[in-house]
Write a structure and sequence with these properties.
CATH topology: TIM Barrel
CATH class: Alpha Beta
Number of helices: 8
Structural class: alpha/beta
CATH superfamily: Aldolase class I
Strand content: 15-25%
Shape: globular
CATH architecture: Alpha-Beta Barrel
Order of helices and strands: HEEHEHEHEHHEHEH
Radius of gyration: 17 Å
Largest sheet: 7 strands, mixed
Number of strands: 7
């Protein structure tokens, strides 16, 4: 089957809204050569976000999912996998079919998520080989980071599902000292230990792409 025919026959449910595509990445899935698909839309508005243009779910996008599929077909045997990033990939109902389409081309599947939709995350866990999970703060502190009340409850439920699934994962936290001081990091460490997390990384704040003036002034 040609790239064109496979793209044309993709079901409408698989028409992921794509906000960008990194055609080759060595950092989005450590140890793997991947293409990274940036999914449009995120329900949270973290101040340090370095892809704020991907937050609005209905923003105009320049890339069709069928074009991404055609590109992926041309990279069969050259890339190890495909990472679905964002934005927040699990916001989109099309994600499971998009993952299946990429897996059918022979790629391993990675996912970047912060866990705002536990049930949707559970649906794609069997399709996923690796997860980069962003933990924002101690779960009671989430609203201060995401600007969404109760977001920590969803994140905790999602992380528990990831840990129970056995899928390989990288659990990491972006850190800016205006948002997470030493006491906040101690509370976070306690929450993660209670869930049985043994490996957790702190990531320095990235100024690139961030539009929050207050955080940029204190970087």
């Amino acid at each position: 089957m040609s790239a064109g025919s496979s793209a044309k026959r993709a079901p409408r449910s698989a028409e992921l809204r794509v906000g960008g595509l990194a055609r080759l990445s060595t950092c989005d899935w450590p140890g793997e050569l991947v293409a990274t698909i940036f999914c449009q839309g995120c329900p949270w508005a973290c101040g340090y976000c370095h892809n704020p243009h991907l937050i609005p779910p209905d923003a105009e996008t320049d890339m069709a999912w069928t074009d991404v599929l055609s590109f992926l077909e041309s990279r069969r045997g050259l890339l190890d996998g495909v990472v679905f990033s964002g934005g927040e990939p699990t916001l989109q109902a099309a994600l499971p079919e998009a993952m299946r389409a990429a897996r059918a081309l022979g790629f391993r599947i990675g996912l970047h998520t912060a866990g705002p939709y536990p049930a949707r995350l559970a649906e794609v866990l069997p399709l996923t080989d690796w997860i980069g999970f962003d933990v924002k703060a101690a779960f009671d502190d989430y609203g201060r980071i995401t600007a969404v009340a109760g977001s920590g409850i969803k994140a905790k439920a999602s992380l528990a599902r990831v840990l129970a699934s056995g899928v390989a994962c990288d659990i990491r936290t972006p850190v800016h000292d205006a948002l997470l001081d030493r006491a906040a990091l101690t509370r976070l460490a306690s929450d993660l230990a209670a869930l049985g997390v043994r490996n957790h990384r702190l990531q320095p704040f990235r100024a690139t792409g961030c539009t929050n003036a207050a955080l940029l002034e204190r970087k």
